[in-house]
Amino acid sequence: MRKAPIAASAFLLASLLAGGCAKKATTAPAEATAASATTAGAKESVVNSPTFVTAEQVSPPQVLDDDKGFNYVTEQFADIRVLRYRVPGFENLSAQQKELLYYLYEAALSGRDIIYDQNFKHNLRIRRTLDAIVQNKRDRSTSPDWEKFMEYTKRVWFSNGIHHHYSANKIMPDFSKEFLAASITKIPSSQLPLKAGETRDAFIKWITPILFDPTIAPKQTNKAAGEDLIKTSAVNFYEGVTQKEVEAFYAKKTDADKTRPVSHGLNSKVVKENGQLVEKVWKADGMYGPAIQRIVFWLEKAVTVAENEKQKLALQKLVQFYRTGDLKVFDEYNIAWVKDVDSKIDVVNGFIEVYDDPIGIKASYESVVSFRDDEATKRIKAIGDQAQWFEDNSPLLATHKKKNVVGITAKVITTVVEGGDAAPATPIGINLPNANWIRKEHGSKSVNLGNIVHAYNESANTGGSTLTEFAFSPEEIERSKKYSSLASDLHTDMHEVIGHASGQINPGVGTPKQTLKNYASTIEEGRADLVALYYVMDPKLVEIGVMPNLEVGKAEYDGYIRGGLITQLSRIAPGEVIEEDHMRNRQMIAAWAFEKGKKDNVIEKVTKNGKTYFKINDYQKLRALFGQLLRETQRITSEGDLAAAKNLVETYGVKVDKALHQEVLQRYATLKIAPYSGFIQPKLSPVVKDGKIVDVLLVYPDNFTQQMLEYGTVYNLLPHYN
């Protein structure tokens, strides 16, 4: 594998962080920044994390008591708005906590190349080509294609590849093939991602159809029923194999302890060699080795400044997993991570979610680095403390309820940085680990990304209003304005805390990814949503003090039905069906409730002034319907009923009313707001004195292009093909 060259400043950084042993620079970050500068009157300097910002350009810490003067929205292009988020409370952390966050920050960003390669095997060459064109800034003022090229490039950066981050459809360029060829021609060969012996003309001939031919890799992740989902998906988890072959391959894998199954296949690519299927494991000395070695480098630094022994053990287990690729060690790491409930600093780092695998086996790289928001945690903790009550009083069949809900740790976190599949588009809530047996025996961590949610809410105050356009009545609008922010927070809290953590699988039934296959993620997200929907109208939430009255629940019902049946249609192109799991589950729930409630007119479809609305007439009957569907989705999960899962998802979650879809697109266009948002990441820079980090500065970049180019240079760790 190609080793990235070690820049001179990497030796400096390695010396500072490794006690002055220059020999250790071989494991230090490559392609780092210029040498640090020394401040006047002291042997103190700001050593940049491996980026191209000089010490003189590093701004002082931006301490903001409120949102005054902070611009949440930086730009908008295509269907995307680029936002920023604040990190309140960072300045109050100790020097050791900030140092720990810095190491975890670098570990998070060091996996950036991995997610590009996972999403499509040619993504790294494509991104490096686009970066090179932008860095050379050719034809900026003379070519009419320049702005179209920049929009396409930003979309690729935002999606971590050439497929849309949500729809998974290939992003088609609006600039010309001639512009691409001319731009590549003007770039020095040394800056192009050429293969050995490849000419510039041959490279242009190769890359042009990859970008412009809509029949080449049209879908990153295909979940259409009746097709070979592996052969028709461009995602780089499999090569030269069929869905039947892969399913048979993993069906043969057995566990000595069937009650604690290993997540087979989570961290590998499956290929065919000499007629046999083999796994290329993602580990320090295997596939993605150079990037994983860099992640390990920073995680090992984090171990040295861990807040306590439990956190130290979890980080050590994560390092061991990355070194060995052993999924049993990954389980040990997850157990250790769940048991670390006292640390203020926390991190998610690894191969986590399987949404991008069409058959739900392989996990995408992601990382979320954070610290606990102690004040905001009081709300979510109040829900977590009542987890057993919620389980006991749910509408599930008695045999599907957990008799002893254990170890649910619930908190609101302040996000510092996100990487891999978690950025630029980000989750707002997380419940981990994903292994059902670990959740049952050891518990789980459920978090609400508080400052991310706040940034989304603040950015929603700019531009047109989907609420006034799509809400049926003034009463609905007023209720939403008053309560929707709290309602959304409560839904996220309950989805993660008592949703994913609820219920149990029948003895002898396999994991959902084994039994429900490509429908597992949709059913699981729907099940967690239904728990939240069922309880957001329960007086228990008023009793425990997390909401003032049931009007909050009504606001959530209004928004959920409106989103599931109308506004989310703005996210897909005409003629398409719904394929993304979260969108499928939202329409599945809303459409099922609409149909099942027709007899009692629970939800009414209304046309007013030529526009379509959905109006809830009976909130209590709607709650009962949500309870019925919750019982069914849990039954499907507990019994591994693939046929029922397929019928539910395909009947209610996939198909789109074409006339309504066209109407929604037309109405949405008048608002001039993008349906998707993501973030520029804050930047951490350590302050070093006498070879030791004494503080860490945090600044808020506001230029998406600059950050993407910086990341493309500093975290450029993998060869073109892996």
UniProtKB/TrEMBL annotation:
<dbReference type="GO" id="GO:0016787">
    <property type="term" value="F:hydrolase activity"/>
</dbReference>
<keyword id="KW-0732">Signal</keyword>
<keyword id="KW-0479">Metal-binding</keyword>
<dbReference type="GO" id="GO:0046872">
    <property type="term" value="F:metal ion binding"/>
</dbReference>
<keyword id="KW-0378">Hydrolase</keyword>
<dbReference type="InterPro" id="IPR039461">
    <property type="entry name" value="Peptidase_M49"/>
</dbReference>
<dbReference type="Pfam" id="PF03571">
    <property type="entry name" value="Peptidase_M49"/>
</dbReference>
<feature type="signal peptide">
    <location>
        <begin position="1"/>
        <end position="24"/>
    </location>
</feature>
<protein>
    <submittedName>
        <fullName>Dihydrofolate reductase</fullName>
    </submittedName>
</protein>
